[in-house]
Amino acid sequence: MSSIEERVKKIVAEQLGVKEEDVKPEASFVEDLGADSLDTVELVMALEEEFETEIPDEEAEKITTVQLAIDYIKDNLG
Amino acid sequence: MTLQISLEGKVALVTGASRGIGAAIANMLGGMGATVIGTATSLPGAEKISTRFADAGIAGAGKVLDVTSAESISELHVAIKNEFGAPAILVNNAGITKDNLLMRMKDDEWDSVVSTNLTAVYRMSKACLRDMTKARWGRIINISSVVGSMGNAGQSNYAATKAGVAGFARSLAAEVGSRGITINTVAPGFIDTDMTKVLPEAQRELLLGKIPLGRLGSPEEIASVVSFLASDAGGYVTGETIHVNGGMYMA
After folding, report:
1. Where O-(pantetheine 4'-phosphoryl)serine occurs along the chain (chain A) (predicted)?
2. pLDDT by residue for chain B (251 residues), tens digit each?
3. Minimum distance, in Å, between the CA of residue B134 and any CA atom of chain A
4. Going by C-beta distance under 8 Å and a sequence separation of 6 or more, which residues neighbour residue B13?
5. Residue B39: Cβ within 10 Å count
6. Most buried by CB count within 10 Å: which residue of A48, A65, B126, B151?
7. CB within 8 Å: A38 and B176
């Protein structure tokens, strides 16, 4: 089983159509990876499915970088 | 190339499908190959829809739905996904009137019309959008009314909701167009249904005089426009309000 980091990076790369090596922990979805607001909503949906969880809207809005996504998953599913 | 109107393999959800325009829409989408879920407010109503579909060889079923209840919408959506798959086509047709002069209008006459005709469109669309964005294909078609554009004395509540869904459609069309989802509004004029049968004869005559085609429309004439929008043939139309009214209002 791949680590949470790897799974999150893979989903980010798939959803935003970027290379996995560009998905650095500090990368911001909007500023660095070119996501628009709808992309970020879809990204959260994809994370919810991958990790079989529901991320409340108020939490989802705070997940703006790759590291924040990894942290959220770790804190809530770890 | 022929007109691409097959809906084979698509699941369509039509609210208010037990009679009138909604019944005609559900039947026509089913005839084009879609699996159709038609909703009614009561169990006998839903059973009648199921029987009608079975008689016509349409795949799908009638289901009970209270469009004013977020819980009922969410339960139905889960049930449809489990039984038939996620709806790719949503027709927001269920609607009510509670006519009154504004100065006599009660809060509940306003609230119930807004809740059924407008808030339900928001809730239903939100419930279905997630799977449509994933599929990169979707159709949401709202049934409005000519009254939403023309206005009509005694229908300020109804007209507000019917104009509201058209604005909703334009905004949502801008939001999700990049995901291959179109959102449109069909605005019927006076159609021969239970809703217009209650009009007094004198008012009926007066209305007919204002319709260049000189007759009421049939539910099927609305259903055929909805069906076009639902199909691949209508794929480049979005955010639009299409008036189907025999010429009584030309926008």
Report:
1. 37
2. 889 999 999 999 999 999 999 999 999 999 999 999 999 999 999 999 999 999 999 999 999 999 999 999 999 999 999 999 999 999 999 999 999 999 999 999 999 999 999 999 999 999 999 999 999 999 999 999 999 999 999 999 999 999 999 999 999 999 999 999 999 999 999 999 987 888 888 888 988 999 999 999 999 999 999 999 999 999 999 999 999 999 999 98
3. 8
4. B36, B37, B39, B80, B87, B89, B90, B91, B124, B128
5. 29
6. A65
7. yes
Mutate to test the interface with B, among A42, A47, A50, A57 (most CBs of B within 10 A): A42
pTM here is 0.93
Mark whether A75 is an active-site residue: no
Torsional class of A34: left (φ above 0), alpha (ψ -120 to 50), beta (otherwise):
left
Nearest CA in chain B to A44: B130
Nearest chain A residue to B133 by CA distance is: A42
Element (H, E) at B37: strand B35-40
Residues of B recognised as catalytic: 158
* Amino acid of residue B62: G
A45 contacts B176? CB cut-off 8 A:
no
